[in-house]
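Data availability (excerpt). The following record was deposited with the supplementary files.
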Amino acid sequence: MTNPAYIVQGLLVLALAAGWALHVHRLHRRLDRSRHDPLTGLWTRDGWTRRAERTIRRPRAAVLLADLDGFKAVNDVHGHAAGDAVLAAAGERLTVWCGAHGTAGRLGGDEFVAVVEDDGRLDDRLADLAELLRQPVEHQGVTLRVGASIGAARLATLPEPTLTAALKAADQAMYRAKGRTRRGRRLLLAPAFAVLRGLPQRLRLAA
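Predicted structure:
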């Protein structure tokens, strides 16, 4: 006959294990939420970086940075709620563009980042993304329009195929692209030597 004391002890152990598992699950959910931008649903810098580091281990990968051109004017003229609507739409569109084999993130403000597989059509895909981001956003009866400056870097073309080097090269490409053409059509693929150039003024001031 089974000792009732053993049964009680076993139930206590199971209860404790279940309680601990629930606690761990809730903790992971809180950590996961903290790594997502609440406005766009995209990964924050920390969450995106963790996933990007894994992605760039693949044979072909590319990193891109994007700024929304004209975003400040939307905020100033139509208010922050309108700006939030534009950011949320941009995040949704970037997520769709990345697809199942890419990861998008928001660095803050109107700065977005993504890591994707370089399938040989990156130039065309960047043009598609620029067009996608410049599509109007309807907010409370107002049509909001922004453009996008996009810079990208292929890991395979960099002397140092690291995430840091790719971000620097993409950042340089993005700032070279700014102002070259009209709104919504600004994009540039970083050449292999981009990482060797000096950092743009924005990064030097932040150092």
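Summary of structural features: Residues 20-33, 181-186, 191-207 have pLDDT under 50 and may be disordered.
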